Amino acid sequence: MTIKISKHILAIVLAAVIMFAPAGTHLAAQNSQASHLPVSMDGNADIKSREEVIYAVAASDGSINAVYAVNHFAIARAGKLTDYGKFTRVTNLTNTDPLTYADDAVSINVSDENFYYQGDMAEKVLPWIFNITYLLDGEKIAPQNLAGSRGKLEIRITTGSNDAVNPVFYENYMLQISITLDTEKCSDIYAPDAILANAGKNKAIAYTVLPGRDADISISATVEDFTMPGIEITGMPFSMNVELPETDDMLDDFTQLSDGIAQLNDGAGELKNGIWQLKDGAAILKNGSYDIKTGLSQLSDNSEQLIKASSRIGSALTKISSSLNHPSGDMDLSQLAQLPQVLSQLADGLDQAAEGLTDLSNGFAAAHGALAGAIQEIPDTALSKNQIAELYAQTDPSQHPVLDELLASYTAGLKVKGTYKGTKDAFDAVEALDEVSGSITAISDALRDIAEKMNEALSGMDAMQQLEQLAEGLSQLEKNYEEFHKGLKDFMDGVDGLFYGYTDFHGGLSAFGDGIDDLYEGTSQLHDGTRRLKDETLDLPDIIQEELDSMLEQYTGSDFEPVSFTSPKNEKVALVQFVIKCEGIEKEEETEIKGEEAESPHETIWDRFINLFTD
Known about the structure:
Elements: H1 7-17, H2 24-34, E1 39-44, E2 46-58, E3 64-84, E4 87-92, E5 100-102, E6 105-110, E7 115-121, E8 128-136, E9 139-140, E10 151-161, H3 168-172, E11 173-182, E12 186-190, E13 195-199, E14 202-209, E15 216-223, E16 232-237, H4 248-325, H5 333-336, H6 339-376, H7 385-393, H8 400-422, H9 424-430, H10 433-459, H11 463-537, H12 540-556, E17 573-582, H13 588-591, H14 595-598, H15 605-610
Parallel strand pairs: 1-3, 2-17
Antiparallel strand pairs: 2-3, 3-6, 3-7, 4-7, 5-6, 8-9, 8-10, 10-15, 11-14, 11-16, 12-15, 13-14, 16-17
């Protein structure tokens, strides 16, 4: 049988029982006095408090070999002590009085002094499961084969909850894992997130695992003739005196943040309302543009007929003028008498055409004025790539889709403005319809004047003289009409060009209106998001304060009530601690002590302490 005792464990045990060693005479005297001490009325001992220290012996891989409980009682009044637990053996560590153990109950009569006893746990379980693996040069190696090796060593330690044990220990206890490496045998020690300390030639490595957390530890070193003391793990209730810094300024900042989000929501609402007005104006503009496009289409479609009619008028004037200037002998004056009426009807038709052109010009001017005013609001200069990139960088990523729509609408607006600049001359030409209408009105007035003069000539005594004057007037009218017809043809050619150009412009304007619609939908979503954000952050300072209080309560452990690990029946538990000692990595010739050499025919209380970690 092999005995492996840690000086650290011996120190803990020695501190717990030094008051009882080594005088057997003193213990005998104490036992003789116990029967004379006062007892409680019902004969049971009155317990001030109860403490447990759970010792466990583990293999090098973290598997548990044995579990022992050392139970300490502070006695207020002597009497019968009863304690509970599932044990395979119980040992009195205070005196030589025998313990009675039956039905998971330990009983003994005690004095009003401290009392200790040891119970060997029937189940080899702890609140945690430990797994320790070793890799040498990247290959997994059994710990018993690791002593004296050389190479690149990695030690991996993981901890987790043991579901078979009351979770109160896992949830409220912190673990401290201690590893000691000999720096004469280990170099290039790498232990991330550990606390490192030098202890002579040794490097002490310590990890702390908080309650409710699992550990995943990796330690590496270059080793030569490797040995290592056993890994030690302690578990204790977590309690920390945490004094948070003054949080008023921080909470004030969160209050300002909450107020800022509220202002952002208000601004998003105003932006939404403004874009709604822009959307409404864009719809009106789009409809007006459609009316202009329709009017230009009708004018373009009728341009050929208008030019043909004007050509026929010109031909008729030429024929009439020629007939009057070169009258034939068989000239029928009865047909000439019908000419004034024809000229009057032609004048009436021209007046209607002039009136239609005037109405078209007035409607176009109003629509063009609204269009020009709206387009004037669109900026001339496009944003640079760097400005756009900076805008995206300074915007919450969740709002990038809205920003995409804003930029798309902005780009469409620039395109509309560029198209408008390219077709402005055509727009100005359409506004010249008033001049064309005036020219047509002048021609119609001239035709009426000629018709009146022809009536006078045909009804007067000197008809031939009047006809000569009429012929001269018609000749002059014929020349002027030729210029008018040429101007009318050029004008209608311009209208045709404007119609095709305006069709593209109207398409861009429609896209701009559609972009404004998308922009409005985007800003509506933005406003909905800022409103939700405002609602969620309205009580942000109070929420932060509650979280701080919750964290503080969690890590101070002030509400934790200790419970017994050995049995839930045990009461007045003041403290429960765990001490786990793993086997070390040592050469056999350095560690083996024969069982018969370790055993003594005369066992003392000190021997009982040593036997805590003896199989």
